Amino acid sequence: MQPQIVLLKEGTDTSQGKPQLISNINACQSIVDAVRTTLGPRGMDKLIVNAQGKATISNDGATIMKLLDIVHPAAKTLVDIAKSQDAEVGDGTTSVVLLAGEFLKQVKPFVEEGVHPRIVIKAIRKALQLCMEKINEMAVRIEKQSKEEQRALLEKCAATAMSSKLIHQQKDFFAKIVVDAVLSLDELLPLNMIGIKKVAGGSLEESQLVSGVAFKKTFSYAGFEMAPKSYENCKIALLNIELELKAERDNAEIRVDNVKEYQKVVDAEWQILYNKLAKIHESGANVVLSKLPIGDVATQYFADRNMFCAGRVPDEDLKRTMKACGGAVMTTANDIKANVLGLCERFEERQVGGDRFNLFQGCPNAKTSTLILRGGAEQFLEETERSLHDAIMIVRRTIKHDSVVAGGGAIEMELSKVLRDYSRTIAGKEQLLIAAIAKGLEIIPRQLCDNAGFDATNILNKLRQKHAQGGQWFGVDITKEDISDNFEQCVWEPSIIKINALTAAAEAACMILSVDETIKSPKAGEPPMAGGGGMGMGRGMGRPM
Ligand code: ADP
Ligand code: MG
C-alpha cells in the first residue's frame, strides 16, 4: 500500500466540485421553503421556539431567518442578505430570500448540465443591470411640493408595508401614527429617536403617539407619593450616580471599641449622601433621573423639596432624554450646575393602561416621539413592534428617495418581461440563462397567489398577457382573486426596496455559485471522527476500544 499523504488535519471535512455546488443550492432551497409561505398580505406566520423555550410569532423574513439558527455554511448567506435588507431598508426581507433562492433554482439545471458557473454568474449580473435600469426608468417620482400629497404618499407606503403583517386590519390607523412619528423627527430622521414602548392590555387602537420622550415609571421607594407628578418648564438632572446609603460594613472591616466611634462612621455615610443630594438640589433641577438606584432617603429628601426622582432608568431612555432635552449625564455630584441640566416644557406622570409613564414633552433640542403600543399577548405586541419597525423604515426611506413602484408582483412581472424580451435578442447559453432569471422573478407574484390560495398559473398567464400589452403596473389583486393595476390600487412600495432586494439576491446567488469547495476544520477540542463515524461511537456505546 502507498503511504497516504496527509494534507489537512485529521477530521477536516472537504467536499468539492459540481456536487458541492448542487448541494449548496439545495440547502438554500430548504431555507427558502421555510419562509416561502410568509410572503404577502395572505402569508402565514411562523411560531419559532428557541432552546430556552421562548416562543416568537413572526411574519418578518429577517426575524425568522435570525431565529432559525442555520448551520449550513452556504445557506447562511441567505440569512445575511435578509439581515442586511432589514438594516438597509427594513422591508422586503422575505422577498430577498425568495428571489435569491429562485434564481439559484432556475439556474441549477444549467449547472447540472455542465455550464460553467462563471457563465451563469455573468448572466445574472447582466440581468441585474437590466433590471436596475428598468426600475430607475419606471419609478414614479412624487413631487414634494405639497405637504398633504407627501403625507398621503407616505401613508400608502406604510400601509403596504403593514398589509402583510398581523396588524393588517389596523394598518390605516398605524400608517397615520407611523407617518406622524417619522415626520416629527428632524432632517436626518434618526431611527433611535422614535421610542417604542409596549403596554400589555387594551386594544391596538388604544396605542398612541406621544411627542417627546416617555418611559415606564421605574421602581420607586417610599416617599415617592409625596413628590409632585407634573411640572411646567422643568429642569432635568441626568445622573449616573447611586443615591443610596451603602452598607459599607459589607465591603470593609472597621474596628471600633465604643459606640461613639461607630456613630461617627454612620454619620459620615449619611453626610456623604446628604452632600450629594444638596448639590443636586442647589443646581435647581426639578426632576432627577438616574441610571443607578435612588434609595428611600434620597426619595424623601427630593419629595420634601418638591422634586421628582426616578432611579434605574434604562440606559436608552436616559440617552434619548439627554438628546431631546439637552444637558449631560453626570457621574459625580460635584459639578452639577444649571448648564448641565436638560430642559423641557412639560413633565408629567400619567397612567397608560396598567402602567404609569413618565412623559417629557416640548423638548427643545431634538425632535423625538414615543409610540406607546397597547394590545393583547406579549408575543403579539412584539410582532406589532417589528411590523411598525418595517413601516417606519419604509417611511424614512420614502422621504429620502421619493420614488415608488407598484407592489403585488407588478414590478417583478415587468422586469421579467424586459429580461425575456432582451433574451430574444441574443444567442447562445446567455439567452437561456437570462430567460431563466426572467422566470425566477415571477416567483413573487406566484407566491403571493399561492399563499392566498389562488390559481397561480391562471393569474400569471393573465399578468404576462397584460404586461405584453403594455400594462406595466398590473399585479396580483389580493382581494378579488384577479389582476389589477396596482398603481391605481395604491399598493405602493419605495423603489429602493426593490433595488436593494434584487441587488442583494443576485449577489447572494452569484456568491453561492462561485463556491465549489467547502473545507471544514474540526472544531477545536472535538475528538476527530476518524474513518466515517464507526469508530467514534465505540466508546459511548460502552464497547471496549
Ligand atoms: P417582505 O418581508 O418581503 O416585505 P411581505 O410579507 O411584507 O414580505 O410581503 C411583501 C409583498 O407583498 C410585496 O411583494 C408586496 O408588493 C406585496 N403586497 C403588499 N400589500 C399588497 C396588496 N395589498 N396587494 C397585493 N400585494 C401586496
Ligand atoms: Mg413587508
UniProtKB/TrEMBL annotation:
Q: Which InterPro entries does the entry mention?
A: Chap_CCT_eta, Chaperone_TCP-1, Chaperonin_TCP-1_CS, Cpn60/GroEL/TCP-1, GroEL-like_apical_dom_sf, GROEL-like_equatorial_sf, TCP-1-like_intermed_sf, TCP-1_chaperonin
**Which region ranges are annotated with the description Disordered?**
523-545
Q: Does the keyword Plastid apply?
A: no
* Transmembrane stretches, start-end: none
Biased composition, class Gly residues, residue ranges? 530-545
Q: Which domain of life is it from?
A: Eukaryota
Q: Does the keyword Cytoplasm apply?
A: yes
Q: Name one GO cellular component term.
A: chaperonin-containing T-complex
Q: Where in the cell is it found?
A: Cytoplasm
Catalytic activity field: ATP + H2O = ADP + phosphate + H(+)
Keywords assigned by UniProt, alphabetized: ATP-binding, Chaperone, Cytoplasm, Hydrolase, Nucleotide-binding
**Molecular function in Gene Ontology:** ATP binding; ATP hydrolysis activity; ATP-dependent protein folding chaperone; unfolded protein binding
- Main location group: cytoplasm
Could you say which protein family the record assigns here?
Belongs to the TCP-1 chaperonin family.
- Subunit composition and interactions: Heterooligomeric complex of about 850 to 900 kDa that forms two stacked rings, 12 to 16 nm in diameter. Heterooligomeric complex that forms two stacked rings.
Q: What does this protein do?
A: Molecular chaperone; assists the folding of proteins upon ATP hydrolysis. Known to play a role, in vitro, in the folding of actin and tubulin.
NCBIfam families from the entry?
A: chap_CCT_eta, thermosome_alpha, thermosome_beta
What is the official name of this protein in its record?
T-complex protein 1 subunit eta
Species of origin reads Drosophila virilis
